[in-house]
Amino acid sequence: MKHTRGFGNFIANVLIYLFLIILCLVILIPFYNMILYSVMPYKEAVNSTFSLVPRGFSLNNYEVIFRDDRLVRAMLISVFNVLAGTAMSIAMTTMGAYALSRNIPFRRFLFYICIFTMYFSAGIIPWYLHMKNLGLIDNIFAMTVPSMVSTFNLILMRNYFTSIPADMEESARIDGASDFTIMIRIFVPLAKPIMATIGLFYAVWFWNDWWYPLMLIPGRELMPLPLLLRKLVIENSVKMIEPMSVGGNDYLKTATRGVQMAVIAVATLPILCVYPFIQKHFTKGIMLGAIKA
Fold first, then answer.
1. In angstroms, what is the C-alpha Rg of the chain?
2. Which of 51, 86, 103, 280 has the highest CB neighbour count under 10 A?
3. 49 to each of 23, 25, 55, 113, 263, how far by Cα in Å?
4. How many CB atoms lie within 10 A of CB 257?
5. How confident is the model at residue 86, as a pLDDT?
6. What pLDDT sits at residue 285?
């Protein structure tokens, strides 16, 4: 019986590892093909759709897109959105979560109102008119202010704060500490894992967000990278690519799809580079923040 059970566990492990390997290949092969296509020479790219074997190497696509001022400006705007938006979002989420985790009047009612917003909204037209009244049309903060606080992240941090022993707060109050001092000196240092996790969520959101810019940014001066990428890939706008070929030089001659793949790679790699530095806090923050209060 023990031998049969051991053999069954071995088969189960083999199947699990086989499934994980297949899943990894399904995820990595398209990404690998994207990188391969972005560095493929023009003559190979125009006659190729999918390849796992390198067919030459050329950085023409990257040279073309980085010579274009629109891409550089869009990247800088996206970087500003990530830095400013993440900082403001973490600050607002921390203050809101701390208030909801303390024994304040109507705390449960306020918490239910926050949850209500996860399932119901006023609709696009009232939302747009509200953003217009706030002066956020064609404003760089239109990409950060409307989505400053995520209810899901607020709940995670609120549950994390609730799990902190009340004795620490009581000791600080005996010493005369105010609510703000308790939050900054006690709760925030203890909340580094959940703050790192939520910061990653916000950073990914602000980096990838194209919906708010599409609705609120009519001009091209404040167009972020995801919106430029959408116009380049989804709308397949060849006219946006042709001006990038500076002077019609043969050296800069590129295939439309090659430029698209290069822009996607540029938009994807920054987040992939940030994740390893936050990974150690990710699991801990999610597990502790998911504890039911």
1. 24
2. 86
3. 22, 18, 12, 50, 17
4. 19
5. 92
6. 56
Residue 74, Cβ density class (10 Å: 0-12 exposed, 13-18 middle, ≥19 buried): buried
CA torsion sign for 132, 134, 138, 140 is negative
* CB neighbour class for 37 (10 Å; exposed up to 12, middle 13-18, buried from 19): buried
**Rounded-to-integer distance, Cα 8 and Cα 121, Å:** 50
Q: Tell me: domain 67-289, CATH 1.10.3720.10, correct?
A: yes
Q: Name the H helices within the chain.
A: 2-38, 42-45, 60-67, 69-101, 107-119, 124-133, 151-162, 166-174, 179-182, 188-190, 192-208, 211-216, 225-233, 238-241, 256-289
Domain boundaries along the sequence of the chain = 67-289
pLDDT of residue 280: 65
Q: Are 45 and 37 a contacting pair, CB within 8 Å?
A: yes
Return the amino acid letter for 56: G
Tokens (6 digits) for 29: 């092969």
The contacts of residue 223 (CB under 8 Å, 6+ apart) are 70, 73, 74, 77, 213, 217
Amino acid at 262: A
Mean pLDDT over each residue of the chain, to the nearest integer: 79
pLDDT band at 49 (very low <50, low <70, confident <90, very high): low
Contact in structure between 227 and 217 (CB atoms under 8 Å): yes
CA angle at residue 173 from 169 to 174, to 5 degrees? 120
Rounded CA-CA distance 165/159 in Å is 12
CA-angle at 271, arms to 19 and 39, nearest 5°: 80
Q: How far apart are CA 158 and CA 152, in angstroms?
A: 10
pTM of the model: 0.76
The answer to whether residues 202 and 153 touch, using CB atoms and an 8 Å cutoff, is: yes
The count of residues in the chain is: 293
